[in-house]
Structures are given as C-alpha cells and as structure tokens.
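User: Predict structure, ligand adenosine-5'-diphosphate.
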Amino acid sequence: MSLGVRMSLRTRMAVTAVAASAAALTAVLVLVGPGLRARAAARERETLLAEARLMARVAEEHLGRGGSLADLDPIVDAAAGEVRARVTIIALDGRVVADSTVSGPDLAALENHGQRPEVREALASGAGSDVRHSATTGEDLMYAAVPVHLGKDVHAVARVAHSLADIDEQVRELRHTVVLSLLLAFAITTALSALFSSSLVGPLREIMQAARQLAAGDLTTRIRVQRRDELAELAGILNHAAAQLQQRVLELSRDHARTDAILSAMEEGVLAVDYKGLVLVANDALRQHFDLSEPLGRHYLEVVRQREVSEIIEGVLQDGERRTSEIEVPRLHLVFAVTGVSFPGADGLAPGAILTFHNTTERRRLERVRRDFVANASHELRTPLTSIRGFVEALEDGAAADPALATRFLGKIHAQADRMAALADDLLELSRLESEERAPNWTNVRPGAVAAEVAASLAALATERGIALAQRDEGAPEVVSDAECLRRILENIVDNALKYTQEGGRVEVVASPADGGGAVVEVRDNGPGIAAEHLPRIFERFYRVDKARSRELGGTGLGLAIVKHLAESVGARVEVESRPGRGSCFRLRIPPTHD
Ligand code: ADP
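Assistant: Predicted complex:
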C-alpha cells in the first residue's frame, strides 16, 4: 500500500497494464498449452487408428485372396508408403509377421509383441492405443492397433506407430510464440500505457496546478482541457466551483464595500467590539473624533479611554440591553450622545456590542448660545425698562410738579424708549438675517460709490461729534453684490468708529482693489482701539468691550453681529485689526462675484 501511495499515477497505470497482459498471456500458456498437446495427441490417435484400419484392410484383402500371414510383409512394405507411420502386423501369438521398417531375418528376430498394451486392447475391444518412450529414437511414440478380420475370425493385429515429436515440436513452437507474444504484448502495453498515461498526466497536472492556485486564493484561475472525458468533467466542475466562489467573494466584497461606504459616510462614530471587547469596526468619524490610528483588533480599553464608554460596553456585553448616555470628552472638548446595542456574534460566539457616537458638541453650544442670548436679551430690555419705571415713579412721587425736573425725566424716558426701540430693531434684523428670509439682490456695485454714500449720510453725525470723516476710492473694481447689504455693513462700522473715537479724532473710509480680485473697503479710526483678547469676540451678540460706555453711546451690542451676518449673506468677510490707544481698522473684503 505504501508503495502504491508513493508510485506516481503514471507508473501505477503502466505496472497495472503490464501485469494484466502478463497475467493474461501466462494464463494462455498455462491453460491452453497442455490442453493443446492432449488435443493434438487425441487427433494423432484418431489418425493412427484410421491408418491402422487401412493397414488391417490391406491385410484382410490379402488373406481374403487366400494369402497367408507369412507373405504379408512385402505387401505391408508397399502399403506403408501410403501412410506416414511404421506399420506392423502381429499374429495372434504375438509374433511380428510383417513390418514396414524391418524385413527378412530381422523380422523373425523381433521380440514377441503379444503383450503390448495396444495389441491386447485391440484384441479386447477392437481398437487399442498407447504412448511409449522409445529408447532407440529417444522420442515418444504413439501406437494404434486394430484386429485383422477374416470373416468373423480375428487373424492378426495391425498396428501403426508414429513419433509424437511433431506434436511436441508444435507445442514448443506454440510456447515460443506465446513467449514472443508475451514480450511483444509487454512492449506494446508499456508503450500504450505510457502514451495513454502521458495523455492523462498532462491534463491532470494542469488540473492539480489550477486546484493549487484556487486553494491559494487565486479565484481567477480556470482550467482549459480540450477533451471529452471524465477529466474534462472534473475540470468543468472545478471551473464551476471557482466561478461560484469568485461570484460569492465578489458579492461579499461588494457588500463589504457598501457597508464600508455607509460607515465612512456616517457622521456618527461607530465602534463595534466582539464579546471579548476586541475592536471589529471603528469608522472614519470615530477615528477622527478620537484621533485613532490602528484600532482594529485591539482591546477597546486601549482605544477609547473613557469610563462611560467602558460602562456602556460592559453593560451591553453582559445583558444585551440597549443603553444610551451623554458623555463629555474634556481632552477633545467634545460631547457625544452614545448609544450601545448588542449584535450577534459570529459562528455561535457570544454577542458583541456596537456603539454609535453622535457628536452633540455643536448642538450643546447652540443651546448654550441660545440660552445666553435669551438671558442677554432679557437683561438688555430690562435695564431701560427699569430706568423708565424709576423715572415714572419719580414723576408720580412729585417730580411731575417740578416742570424742569419733569422735562428732564421725560427726556430720559424718551432716550430709554429709543434704546429699547433700537434694541428691538436690531433683534428683529438679526433674527431676520438668521432665518435667511431675504435673498441678496445681486447687481453690479461699485464699492467706492457705496462707501461715499455711507460717508455722506453720516457726515452730519461726524460733524456733530467733532470727528473728521474722510472717504477715498483708490480704484476699487466693480463687483457683483447686494448694494443695500454693503451699505448697511459700512454704516454700522463707520457708525461704531464715529461712536467710539474721541472728539477731534479722524475716521477714514478707503475703497481699494483686493489682491485676488474683488474689492476691500477699510474703515480706519484713531480711537481707543480694542485689546487683543476682545478681538475674537466683538462679533458675538451682546459682546461689548466696555458695557457702560457702549450703553452710554446708545449701543446695543448687536451691531457687529449684524455686520457679520450681512457680510456672510453676500459672501464677504469682515476682519479687524486694532491696537489699544492706536485706533482700529475694520476691513470688508468683497469677492468679485457671488458663487
Ligand atoms: P455696540 O452696539 O456696543 O457698538 P457692536 O457689536 O457694534 O456693539 O460692537 C461691539 C463692541 O466692539 C463694542 O461694544 C465696542 O466695545 C467694540 N468696538 C466696535 N467698534 C469699535 C471701534 N471702532 N473702536 C473701538 N471699539 C469698537
């Protein structure tokens, strides 16, 4: 068996074929050879008996003509020419009376043949035969004998003898032929089996090679076998299996790609862990949020070090219940609404947990901004209301009786009412801008002309405040924008400059071309300036550097917030540069056209 395992298919086929043909030919040799000799001997016996009968007939005719046994020899000698064999006529007493090979005295000297088995058998049953080895010739001889009759009496026995050397020769020849055929068959079978097996081995090798490639994962491999047999069928089955597998893999990878695309398109972070807590999925959003490099395959504790996250994961892994929680990651300044659910484990393993991280930082910020805004707005409205109530109470308490005081108080009430109205106007404008109710009215606008218009409209105020207001156009190009919007922006900025710059100061409005196209309008003043720490915040609603001074000047704290919104609505940008004590410069950058 071990030999069989080690032998190649080709050798095994050759050995089997040769062994089979050898066995068949040996069987022929063993089974047919001896039978053949027996059959040939039987045929020879029949022939010899016929010849013996012929010779008996010759003797009978001689005796019938009145001849005697004694002078039969010459007749036998003559008749023996008709047959191939030695003919002997034996008298009933066993004497040899005629012999085709011996005559005269030699004949008389022949020993008595009466006891020869064939002679006795012939006399007993009418026909006898025997095979004996002749010491003289060294050959096997076959004898056949029949009685010689005359009327009803038996007078002698006619016997013929013939060497079996021919038959032996034939059998030998047959053996030679068989051995030769055997050798020839060996040669032919070996050649044929080699030819046949090599015709099998080639395609088999190809199939094996392809199967190896398939096993190694190359599913594009196909077997090309130009045959119409079992090998072709096997190749077909393998090809079909490969195609099926390839299709399956393709579908799986398509599914995978789809899931990946969905996961990476998600704004929410997704983290999936198996029952041991090893990370299976961490999508792009999660990687970005938590700045993860290679989270897959690691334990979640190494990846997201946050107590609340561990609690959710452990809880879900334990009982499979859905959990939600809001967690704050101070390190990242982010807040997440985290939901954890269970998901089935692979191949009968315990379920894992999948967590989504919804970034609620912005929502939280907006909520805070809104809360602050409501508080601020209420506070801003409350202040003038409180003072109006104070003046009204003072009037009620008797100040009304003093006309001068009453007039002063009424004036104060008026001023506070104006402030409230201004505040209400600004709030309304801001809410309109935030809700984006009004679409910009795009037209060709010359920023220089808008600046000139604003300067002209505020010239009286500047004079009133003792401030020199100058305006220049240094070749600002025409842009596509909303003229009214630009006007309101500049009005607010110039108004601020006039408001905060001390008497005797100067304010300049300069329109010029921008480097990358479009225009820039700068409003420069030599007022008190703004300290660096306030600069990032002055565009926030209600943010004021000096609250008291702003109020005193009738400011609402909303002007720059409105400016920012207006600028955004036409794609423009407002920047500020300022140094305390050196003045401020507000720069409005207007793009050449809108998107
Ligand atoms: P306000 O109604 O108080 O003027 P704004 O939003 O217009 O509100 O301005 C916000 C704050 O920015 C002001 O309170 C003021 O402190 C500061 N500010 C604005 N413009 C100037 C300027 N040209 N010079 C100095 N400070 C300014």
